[in-house]
Amino acid sequence: MKWLNTQDAGFEADFQALLDDARETTSRVDAIVSGIIEDVRRRGDAALVELTARLDRWDASDAGALRITSAEIDAATASVPAEQAEALAVAARRIEAFHRAQLPRDLEMTDTEGICTGLRWNAVDAVGLYVPGGKAAYPSSVLMNALPARVAGVARIAMCVPTPDGALNPLVLAAARLAGVTEIWRLGGAQAIAALAWGTRQVQPVDRIVGPGNAYVAEAKRQAFGRVGIDSIAGPSEVVVLADGANDPRHVALDLLAQAEHDEAAQSILITDDAGFGRRVAEAVQLELSSLPRAAIAGASWDQHGAIITVADWSQAVELTNRLAPEHLQIMVDSPRQLLAQIRHAGAAFLGRFCPEALGDYVAGPNHVLPTGRTARFASGLSVFDFLKRTTWVEADAGAMAAIGGAAVTLARAEGLDAHAMSVAARMGGSDKRP
Amino acid sequence: MKWLNTQDAGFEADFQALLDDARETTSRVDAIVSGIIEDVRRRGDAALVELTARLDRWDASDAGALRITSAEIDAATASVPAEQAEALAVAARRIEAFHRAQLPRDLEMTDTEGICTGLRWNAVDAVGLYVPGGKAAYPSSVLMNALPARVAGVARIAMCVPTPDGALNPLVLAAARLAGVTEIWRLGGAQAIAALAWGTRQVQPVDRIVGPGNAYVAEAKRQAFGRVGIDSIAGPSEVVVLADGANDPRHVALDLLAQAEHDEAAQSILITDDAGFGRRVAEAVQLELSSLPRAAIAGASWDQHGAIITVADWSQAVELTNRLAPEHLQIMVDSPRQLLAQIRHAGAAFLGRFCPEALGDYVAGPNHVLPTGRTARFASGLSVFDFLKRTTWVEADAGAMAAIGGAAVTLARAEGLDAHAMSVAARMGGSDKRP
Q1: Residue ranges of chain B with pLDDT lower than 70?
Q2: Are A428 and A406 in contact (CB under 8 A)?
Q3: For position B23, what pLDDT does the model report?
Q4: What does the note under cofactor report (chains A, B) (predicted)?
Q5: More reliable by pLDDT, A113 or B420
Q6: Which of A81, A202, A287, B425 has a CA between 20 and 30 Å from the CA of residue A33?
Q7: Residue-wise DSSP of A289-327
Q8: What is the largest CA-CA distance in chain A?
Q9: How many CB atoms lie within 10 A of CB B106?
Q10: ipTM (interface pTM)
Q11: How far apart are CA B26 and CA B268, in angstroms?
Q12: What is the pLDDT of residues B36-78, one digit of tens each?
């Protein structure tokens, strides 16, 4: 963990190093992935069965058996403890409500020249949702990826989840049913993405693919981009906590560790105007680490990427935060909205001393799929907008053409596009009224 | 040009061939482009000066001279004929009005559990706009790319345009000034994208890059993706015209040719319920080709990629259109809105017998940067949304945590993330009121 102080001479260099700390573990898997995609495109279902047997050690009698049956989902859902089922329901209800409130309205306007223009939102027909298997299978991510698609009006949501050695996570299947997933396949890795993007006899292709995955999945999504839409490739998670000395140091320590326990490459940064408070938080972090189950991961993240920055005032904190453009931002001061109003770049903000980021990971309502690695400068979290697209339209009659057609003809001629000009000129002065 | 009829036995195969006709001319320039980017990242301005001298045959005394001066823009703007200046003004006014009407509203809601959630839109800080040089320099594209950014509230819009042998297009500079571009650089190709994405001493880096370009520019944008946001890589243009027999065949022929004259890889498709009308349109296309300045390009496009499809009824036409998901769609029937209501996938629609697509290329108002190659299934045209991003936020106090914290703790434990659970549990039952 690094200590930084804006008053120190070397601060700017240290802070720049923090900004440049990519924390990426890029592995070159392009060739392997393109080979798998080529195989699935050429041999279809047969390739899926073979790859799943070899890579996930699960033998499907045939490709049809790759699909998880409704009975299997029933059984898995029934096996979920009541307390967990209720917690899932609370999360689903709140996530759905927040995303429903985001739904945009269509636009229609008629101007003084008599031209009517508009914009209409339509849902994507079919979406593919990738869910990692094993330990990384998070039911909360199933809700966060599938519910916005369902709220947007996507008719078909096809989920792929690897089941290594046949292992199924009941809570993941329960979340998928709750979120309105319409089909689930025992498929993982690049072969799952290939099946979703290009389709096979069994797996119909989709129009857009979302969901987190390992390096093979990320590269497969890159290679499928253009053929289908994809979400952004997520990097390691991060949090910036703005906290004054009036907070409980243990609260802040736990918030920093909640981020750190995700991944050794995760990053937790505390920005405070109280150096003494910073020291108390650092002590609390060490104390909590001594008993934390995932202490090895969280400790490595905190040691390698963690930071405590002391600032002279909150305007400095706001400026540093905008440069960091963090995925998660907690604002733990008396009037958090005053600081939020000055934040231009952040994926998601959590306001108040009693509003930890982890609340947003599960039940607050806003999405937990967020832009990482400073991409909040230009990117946003997952939302209904990821599953909608726009069709703009123009309605004009002969009168409208007479009013504005001339400008179009002039510009078309200036650009040397005569057929453009003629197609407009041919309508000017004429009449579109049927005799 | 191909004739198709839904009544023919071989129709489905022929139509599938039409769908699979990628029309892409992919050239492998990855290595060249990554070399140029590496050079600009390593040597900065010196590399920009050398590459511009070598590739665009324009010698800058130093990197500062790469920036087009305000005086040069004044002179260029003053040299634009009044008629063209007025046409640009009409276009800018209408494009700005339509995009201003798109601006989304922030969201804020408080639920029964007392949790306040919201969503706030912020503009990207800095945008880079690439404009091709030479013949492909379209002033209309400058308006269509820059105005949505300005309307969204982007403070800095940096434009790069190559000036081969020093040649400047006055109308392009006039459009840039009208659209609120804040700086213009004599830079083209991959070196322009590298300068915008990574920055040099002279060129400050941007957060997002938009605008069309050749294969080198497209590949450079691909390689910069993640470092900055990029718009979608546009393919060859296309139009689908739905027209009944009551239309003037010449009008439809000119609309098909307006698309075809862009590029030999462009595609124009007429779908009609009147085979005789289709034949008259085909004849009119040949007649117009005999006098069209860009007949060589338009003729090649029509011969290789054009099609006339005869349908039994309009429901068939709607189904085929949704499968084509065209960039541009003209609906030339008596009640075009009835058909539009059934179209799920199209970039932009033009309604009525007197509303040619070319009107939308210049002055209608909606953007002319649209999804090509069937990507309208999941993608949208350029809009203010491309220059805005969202920050979601949550505000909760001790009471709210008591209400929903339990569900978060349960799910965090189920996912094996104990620090997540503890960070929530630590706030439950406590009080956030200051003593």
Answers
A1: 24-27, 134-136, 430-435
A2: yes
A3: 75
A4: Binds 1 zinc ion per subunit.
A5: B420
A6: A202
A7: HTT-TTHHHHHHHHHHH-EEEE-SSHHHHHHHHHHH--S
A8: 88
A9: 11
A10: 0.94
A11: 21
A12: 999 999 999 999 999 999 999 999 888 899 999 999 999 999 9
Task: List Cα–Cα distances, A241 to A310, B144, B202, in angstroms.
Answer: 12, 40, 34
| Sign of the CA dihedral with B310 first, then B313, B315, and B316 last | negative
- Residues in A touching B385 (Cβ below 8 Å): 385
Listed by number, the residues of chain B in 103-142 with a beta carbon closer than 8 Å to a beta carbon of chain A are 104, 107, 109, 111, 115, 117, 119-120, 122, 124-125, 135, 138-140
Nearest CA in chain B to A327: B391
A255, A270, A277 from A309: Cα distances, Å: 16, 6, 11
pLDDT tops 70 at residue A34:
yes
> Are B356 and A423 contacting, i.e. CB atoms less than 8 angstroms apart?
yes
To the nearest whole percent, how much of chain B has pLDDT over 90?
A: 86
Strand partners, A304: none
pLDDT of residue A434: 47
The reported pLDDT for the residue numbered B25 is 61
Share of chain A above pLDDT 90, in %: 86
Residues A37-45 have a mean pLDDT of 96
Cα A43 to Cα A35: distance, rounded to the nearest angstrom: 12
In this complex, which of A337, A362, A410 lies closest to B408 when CB atoms are compared?
A362
Q: Which residues 26-85 of chain B have a CB within 8 Å of chain A?
A: 83-84
Q: Which of B343, B344, B354 is closest, CB to CB, to A398?
A: B354
- The strand ranges marked E within A198-345 are 208-210, 229-230, 238-243, 267-272, 307-310, 328-332
Q: H or E element: which one contains A336?
A: helix A336-340
| Dihedral angle sign, alpha carbons of residues B364, B368, B372, B375 | negative
Distance between CA atoms of residues B382 and B401, nearest Å: 41
Digit-coded pLDDT (tens) for A42-91: 999 999 999 999 999 999 888 899 999 999 999 999 999 999 999 999 99
* Catalytic residue list contains A50: no
Residue A345 is among the residues annotated as catalytic for this protein? no
Annotation-wise, does B191 bind a ligand?
yes
pLDDT digits 0-9 by tens, A242-262: 999 999 999 999 999 999 999
Q: Which of B237, B388, B262 is nearest to B326 (CA)?
A: B237
- Contact status of A395 with chain B (Cβ, < 8 Å): yes
Q: What is the spatial distance between Cα B30 and Cα B32, in angstroms, rounded to a whole number?
A: 6
pTM of this structure: 0.94
CA atoms lying within 13 Å on the CB side of residue B267: 25
- Alpha carbon distance B387, B384 (integer Å): 5
Answer yes or no: do A378 and B228 touch at CB < 8 A. Answer: yes
Question: Catalytic pick from A99, A251, A305, A328?
Answer: A328
Closest residue in B to A101 (Cα–Cα): B107
Q: Is some CB atom of chain A closer than 8 A to the CB atom of B375?
A: yes
Q: Is B23 on the interface with A (CB under 8 A)?
A: no
* Whole-number pLDDT of residue A186: 95
